[in-house]
Amino acid sequence: MSKTANFFCGFIGLLLVSGCAVQKDHVEVATAPAILYAPNPAYPEAARAEGVSGEVVLKVTVDALGQTAGASVASEAPAGYGFGEAALAAVKNWVWEPGRLRGEPVNQGRQVRVHFSAYERGATTVPQILSKTEPRVPAEFARSGERAAVLVRAEVDSEGKPYLVSVVKELPGPRGLAEAALECVRQWRFTPAIPGTVTVLVPFGPKQAESAVAPIRQ
Q1: Residue 195's beta-bridge partner residues?
Q2: DSSP conformation letters of 8-19
Q3: Residue 55 pairs with which residues in a beta bridge?
Q4: 30-116 is classed in which CATH architecture?
Q5: Is domain 129-214 classified as CATH 3.30.2420?
Q6: Closest of 76, 88, 205, 94 to residue 151, by C-alpha
Q7: CA dist 42 to 81, 82, 131, 156, 196, Å?
Q8: Residues of CATH 3.30.2420.10 domain(s) within the chain?
Q9: Which residue has the higher pLDDT, 26 or 56?
Q10: d(CA 129, CA 102)
């Protein structure tokens, strides 16, 4: 091979190596959404009556506030018992740690498996929201135009009033909104339930979404 050919091949090789290096430098590391609280789905009556267990795989989109933005059934086994519909209804109320890209919360999708076991017992009833007020938004945060959320846990008494209200986590990150969220949830009213523990997501920012409701897993 001539010197010219050797030089040409070497030059092309250098370009390829350089290209790979540049591409590697621009890899964007992302973390997937993680489940914080997940209410068990309602068990389809036909499946329970026949003692049938099942499994559903869902494709879920989680928004930057940790709420389920969309979901669809990827697979359902066995079909015909309503497992897919029950899983979709439940996942709407799940609460998530949002996915992150370069450290910032983003809308992101992931798959989850929802199991139905005909042998599990002791399902609990989760308090449902009857009425609620919107949180008081601090002026400094309102001017920022940003969005955030606070995950709040509360015990619900026999009259549907919350007590022992506490902050579980601020999402996407600490923004000083905890007290406003606690003050807000103390004014909410729920359906009484046993054991009476509920976790709610209180959103702050433009186009505030409905708060998600999920039970505390013991």
Answers
A1: 125
A2: HHHHHHHHHHHH
A3: 77, 115
A4: 2-Layer Sandwich (3.30)
A5: yes
A6: 94
A7: 12, 10, 23, 21, 18
A8: 30-116
A9: 56
A10: 36
